[in-house]
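Exercise 3.2. Students should predict the tertiary structure of the chain below and write it as structure tokens, then compare their answer with the key that follows.

Predict this chain's 3D structure.
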Amino acid sequence: MNGRLIITALFFTWFGLCLAASADAQTKTITAEDYFRRATELRKKDDLEGAIASYTKAIELNPNFTKAYADRCSVYLEEQKTEAALADCDKAIQLNPKMWNAYYTRGMVYFTSQPFSPDAIQDFSTVISLKADHSAAYYNRAVLYANCQEYEKAVLDLTKIIELGFPNLSPYGKGNVFFARGRGYFYLNKEDLALRDFAQALKLQPGLYDVYDFRADVYIKQKQYDLAIQEYSIAIKVLTANGFPEVVVSNYYRKSARVYVSQSRLDLALADYTKAIQLSPDNFLNYKERAAVYRTLGKADLAAKDEETMRKMGL
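Answer key:
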């Protein structure tokens, strides 16, 4: 009897050891690539912390896993962890100097933290040298050039995107390209070209309400004031219909009022300033500018009320 018990005990001990060994073997078979794939799936589910943890596991198993560094860098960018993102991009580029997406992500890190960054321009230029059809790199470089007031260079980059047929443009839309180029033309005093691009931008992306603002600026520059006011009116309708905050809509009423003031159409200016105040009662500019109109009209009592409101705001 004792012998049988001993044999049974030995069997279960052996069986347990086999199970443990099997579990260990399964654990050991998880590769860096497995963790990388898991990170990719977690990222698709917006589990960024989980994705970072899995990328880190992949890198621990394979310290030369270039793609893991590059992808973890982009997640760090999403989480606005600049130093960690730069470290990962630098490592990916060190491991593979031809890895264009690492340069692109590093360029985005520089771009988001420094709107005038020469480092970002350099990285986007490297991307273009490695992947000549990368429209997003051209677009970002164009925005940086425009930020530095190098509008000719910006227009050239945006034109190149159009000539290429907009490949690899995500996350930007085709309308963004025409809108950006139109702004470049505007600052280069090429108003007709600007208007052409603004029209194309709205055709491709009707939701680009800022286009109306710039198109109004063109008309003001051309002294076509009624057309400028018309643009502001369209913008107000579009913004209201799409549920934009009232404070945003109020800005367009104030812009319209300023055009009326420039034309000495003060009653219409007052109407727009009043509407702006109704939508954004905490914006001191609306009271300040309406008070100035009241004083021009000789309505000192109404001007004083607006100025008293400003004083109560602490201004």
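Discussion points: The longest helix spans residues 2-28. The CA atoms of residues 209 and 235 lie 6 Å apart.
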